[in-house]
Specification:
200 residues, alpha+beta, Immunoglobulin-like, 2 domains, five-stranded antiparallel sheet, globular
């Protein structure tokens, strides 16, 4: 009898240890942060527009004057910033500001001049699922249009450049769950044998 009791106790201990090893379920969304490579591609030279990139960082906003170049893409460097917005400002409207800083103050107050086109917000990093195999995200925004059509910002489809993420973790077999089930089955089996022997 003592042998059966010891075996059953061992099986229950293994089951309890396996369940404890699983740990508590994480609360909230599970993910990781990966860097974003932001690039502007100018389809035209845009001689009638001034392009200002306003970046946000720990030291406040900073203004960078961009020079459109159709020959090569223009990366947005965001070493000390968290986000950026590009403004396409008609030259006549740009002349109404003594400095680009005045334009930033007007933009923050929601007092943009007529004809100013605002790009999507560029971010330094994005939150993705833990099973996402990408080490970086390539985000390319094409600047097109002109005097009559107006300036447009259109983002290219990133799916064509990035690999598919791995299947979710809950879709793959869980070895630890199998160990829990096996240990629990052993506990039930040996407990039943002990009861049978005791009844004889």
């Amino acid at each position: 009898m003592n042998r059966f009791l010891m075996t059953a106790a061992l099986a229950v201990t293994v089951a309890a240890a396996a369940i404890a090893d699983l740990g508590p379920r994480p609360k909230g969304p599970v993910g990781k942060s990966i860097p974003v490579q932001n690039v502007l591609k100018f389809a035209n030279e845009f001689p009638n527009h001034t392009f200002w990139a306003v970046t946000q960082g720990f030291n406040g906003p900073k203004v960078i004057t961009l020079k459109p170049d159709t020959a090569k893409p223009l990366p947005l460097t965001m070493n000390l910033t968290t986000s950026a917005i590009v403004y396409a400002v008609p030259n006549d409207a740009a002349k109404t500001f003594a400095t680009p800083k005045e334009f930033v103050q007007a933009a923050a107050a929601g007092k943009l001049p007529a004809g100013v086109i605002v790009s999507p917000t560029f971010v330094k990093a994005e939150q993705v699922q833990n099973n996402d195999r990408r080490t970086a995200i390539d985000r390319i925004v094409v600047v097109a249009g002109g005097i009559k059509a107006g300036v447009t910002f259109a983002e290219e489809d990133p799916v064509k450049r990035d690999p598919e993420p791995e299947p979710p973790a809950d879709a793959r077999p869980a070895p630890r769950l199998f160990a829990v089930g096996l240990a629990a089955a052993l506990a039930v089996m040996f407990g039943g044998l002990w009861l049978v022997r005791r009844g004889k």
